[in-house]
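Quarterly update from the structural biology core.
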Amino acid sequence: MRKYLVILILFSTFGSTVLSNPSPAEKYYKSATAYHDLGEFEQAISEYRKAIALDPNSPIIYNRLGIAYSELKQYDAALDAYQKAIDLSSMTAEPHYNIGVVYLKKGDFPLAAEAFKRAIAVDAEWGDPYTGLGEVYLKQGNFERATLAYKEASRLNPKDAGAILGLSKVSLKQGRLDEAITAIENVIEIQVDNTEAHYQLAQIYVKRGETEKAAAAMAFFKVLSQTDPLLEKAEMWVKRHPNDARGYNNLGIVYLARHRFKGAIANYKHAISLAPDLATAHYNLGHAYHKQGKVKLAIAAYQQALDVDTELAIAHNNIAVCYTELKVDLDKALFHARTAVRLAPTEGNYWDTLAQICDALGLENEAQRAREKQEEYSGNNEMPLFMLLSSSL
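Predicted structure, tokenized:
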């Protein structure tokens, strides 16, 4: 966040007429920023260069140009742009920090450390360069200095997941497993879907011989690693297609898989606001509520899905499950369970739901038949709609 705040503040170097009467350079910069935000870095670079041709003395544009080059892994060009930004404004911390990031990616740790230290010299209250410096020291095996740098970063920004994760890595390297777990738990509290944190957690549980916890952590790590590329793709899709309901639905799907429940619910609701007849979005909203234990809200959302598509078997099944969990309206549960197996007669899970409801209602014969069907189709478990991404991504 700090990085972009600096950019917004420095943008005043363009003058006070940015909004009322933008210059040609400002127009190109605005266009470049729009491309940049959409991940279209080559187009952004072209527009940044047009802005530079008209305003060659703006450190902001050079810095942003460097970031765009870095995103494309054109590191030499990025370093050149950052250096030009520094030449124009040496007392701005961000270009120094960005140079450190590039050298860190290139594996040149001494030069990375020098750049991070220069950033700190310019702005000692900005946490990111300390995190970068901690990463350098960690890779060099200097655990004492790494710890000091990470601690200073987390002092300046207690929500810096990278710094806290760095502290967990140092603890793990030194065999202090309890401290490592505490740090990782703090990271997960800040960022529930931090992929690296869950991998580290799994490794620690393996070292401690806690096989069940290790398996659970590794299972979620695999979900995160598989959805990492989908996350970036889905987030970029809605930026490029802000009126596409299915795009928001898909982003909600990815968020839900990664346990970002609030974000998932917000995106499902936005999808519904754009397309009230999108049954899958209503269903997915119900599933998100269901995962959180908000069963009554889940029932309402599942019912909205059925109002749009009366033959959505999975919604019928899940409403039946909800009523069963609440131990109320078992007659309604029975209706929906029967409807689910009628619509999807080879779905083993639906027969299992029906069997449980029949047992609760004392319908022994129907329960027995449902269990037989469940065993017959036990390998045919329908993939839930919340795990199905549309082809729009």
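The CA atoms of residues 15 and 210 lie 61 Å apart.
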